[in-house]
Design a protein that fits this description.
4-stranded antiparallel sheet; 6 helices; 6-stranded mixed sheet; Rossmann fold; 231 residues; binds adenosine-5'-triphosphate; alpha/beta; binds magnesium ion; single chain
C-alpha cells in the first residue's frame, strides 16, 4: 500500500566487485525506500559502501543483484537510453569528486545537463544556471575553469549543476566535505528551500554530516549493510 507513495524503492541491492581471485562485497542486500520530498542521510566509515550504493540508486551502476524502482519503473529493467533519460531529467547527482568537465567554464558546466535535457532554450538554461550559481555563492567566478577553483568552490558548482533540471531526487555524496561550517549551513539551507518548494527528495551519504532539522530519517552503513540509525 504505502509503497505506492514511494518515489524510489531499493530491494535486496547488492554489489560485488571481483578482485583477482577474491571478491569485495561492497553492498549486501540493502532495502530502502524514499518518499517524494523526503530527506534521508546515510552515515558510515570510509569503505562502508556508501558511494557504491548511491551509484546504484542513481542509475549509474548496475547492481549485482536486487532492484531499484523509480516511480514504479525498474531502473535496470529499462533500456540504457531510457535509463540515461531518467538520470538526466529526474535525478541530480553531486559526486564525491565533483566530476566537473575541465574544458568548460563554471556557467557551461552548470548548464550542461539542462542543455542535454532539451527542456527550454539555451538562453533560459543559461539564466537558470546563473541564478543557481549566485545561490551557491559562486557568482564571481562565472568564467573560471574547474582547474582554477578551490575544492569547496568546485563542490558548490557541482551542487548548482545537480539542481539545474529541478530533479525529483537529489543524490549527494559528501556534498559539503570541503566546505567550512558557515558555507555548509548555507548550502543546506538552499537545499531545504528547494526540497520544500519543489518536493525534491534528497539522499546524502557522508562520514559525519550533522545538520539539525534537515533530515527526516537517518541510516548507518557498515561493511555494505544498512541499518536504521539509533537516534
Ligand atoms: N571498482 C571497484 N573495484 C573493486 N573494489 C571496489 C570498487 N569500488 C569500490 N570498491 C570497494 O568497495 C568498498 C566500498 O567502496 P565505496 O567507495 O562504496 O565506499 P565509501 O563508503 O563510499 O567510502 P568513502 O567514505 O571513503 O568514500 C571498498 O572496500 C572499496 O575498496
Ligand atoms: Mg565514497
Amino acid at each position: 500500500m504505502s509503497s505506492c507513495r514511494k518515489m524510489l524503492v531499493a530491494k535486496g541491492l547488492s554489489k560485488t566487485f571481483l578482485q583477482g581471485r577474491g571478491a569485495v562485497h561492497a553492498v549486501s542486500g540493502v532495502d530502502m525506500e524514499i518518499a517524494g520530498g523526503e530527506r534521508v542521510c546515510i552515515h558510515g566509515p570510509s569503505g562502508a559502501g556508501k558511494s557504491t550504493f548511491l551509484d546504484m540508486l542513481g542509475a549509474l551502476s548496475k547492481p549485482s543483484s536486487g532492484t531499484v524502482v523509480f516511480k514504479g519503473k525498474e531502473l535496470y529493467g529499462m533500456s540504457d537510453r531510457a535509463r540515461s533519460i531518467v538520470r538526466n531529467k529526474n535525478f541530480g547527482f553531486v559526486f564525491q569528486f565533483y566530476h566537473l568537465l575541465p574544458e568548460l567554464d563554471v556557467v557551461e558546466n552548470v548548464m550542461l545537463p539542462g542543455l542535454i535535457s532539451g527542456r527550454g532554450r539555451t538562453r533560459d538554461v543559461r539564466a537558470r544556471a546563473r541564478d543557481l550559481i549566485e545561490r551557491v555563492g559562486m557568482g564571481h567566478r562565472l568564467k573560471h575553469r574547474p582547474s582554477r577553483l578551490s575544492g569547496g568552490e568546485s563542490q558548490r558548482v557541482a551542487i548548482a549543476r545537480a539542481l539545474i533540471n529541478s530533479p525529483d531526487m537529489l543524490f549527494c555524496d559528501e556534498p559539503t566535505g570541503n566546505l567550512d561550517s558557515a558555507m555548509s549551513e548555507a548550502i543546506y539551507s538552499l537545499l531545504l528551500d528547494i526540497s520544500r518548494e519543489k518536493n525534491m527528495s534528497v539522499l546524502v551519504v557522508s562520514h559525519r554530516e550533522t545538520t539539525p532539522g534537515f533530515f527526516h530519517a537517518g541510516y548507518a552503513m557498515k561493511d555494505g549493510i544498512l541499518s536504521e540509525k539509533e537516534s
